[in-house]
Inverse folding.
């Protein structure tokens, strides 16, 4: 999903996450309205907002453990995830001391570790350097190859070609800078 700032990308992701109620229509997951059984829906979904959702006092490793616990995912060794996202040297540092890019990579590592089939990612590339963008693209490719689904709001095209990728340009639905309804109610 792409579009200018203020075009409604984040609002649409928040609707898909069940955090914002649509004015008309609804959101369905596997044929069911997500409002009817939100706990079941949230058990299948990971939402990474434009904020990283990290606890500044906790170490990078503890943030991953905490994210797994609140996602209802089983506890795992966080070492491989920290290595994969180039965060091993930061494992014991409080998240508040991490750079913007390190914090974003940590939040992405938590998303991947949670093992949810649906990822809702709001500008996941924000603050990432070129090597980290490659890691993000690889994580998306692996998730999709494993049968996962990702809805991504971004200002950049993905670094890899995805066969089933569809692009929603929010600017196509804007009227004087305000997003309007997409699809039938």
């Amino acid at each position: 999903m792409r579009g200018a700032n203020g075009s409604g990308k984040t609002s649409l992701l928040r609707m898909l996450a069940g955090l914002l109620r649509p004015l008309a229509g609804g959101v369905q997951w596997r044929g069911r309205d997500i409002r009817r059984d939100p706990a079941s829906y949230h058990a299948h979904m990971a939402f990474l907002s434009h904020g990283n959702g990290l606890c500044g006092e906790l170490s990078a490793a503890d943030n991953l453990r905490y994210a797994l616990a609140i996602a209802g995912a089983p506890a795992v060794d966080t070492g491989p995830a920290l290595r994969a996202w180039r965060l091993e040297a930061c494992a014991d540092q409080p998240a508040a001391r991490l750079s913007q890019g390190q914090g974003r990579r940590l939040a992405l590592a938590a998303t991947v570790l949670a093992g949810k089939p649906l990822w809702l990612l709001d500008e996941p590339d924000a603050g990432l350097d070129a090597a980290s963008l490659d890691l993000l693209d690889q994580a998306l490719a692996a998730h999709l190859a494993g049968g996962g689904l990702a809805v991504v709001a971004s200002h950049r095209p993905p670094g890899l070609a995805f066969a089933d990728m569809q692009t929603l340009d929010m600017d196509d639905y804007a009227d004087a800078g305000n997003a309007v309804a997409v699809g039938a109610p």
Summary: Confidence is low (pLDDT under 50) at residues 179-185. The chain has six helices and seven strands. The helical segments are 9-16, 38-42, 60-71, 79-84, 100-114, 130-145. The two ends are 20 Å apart (CA to CA).
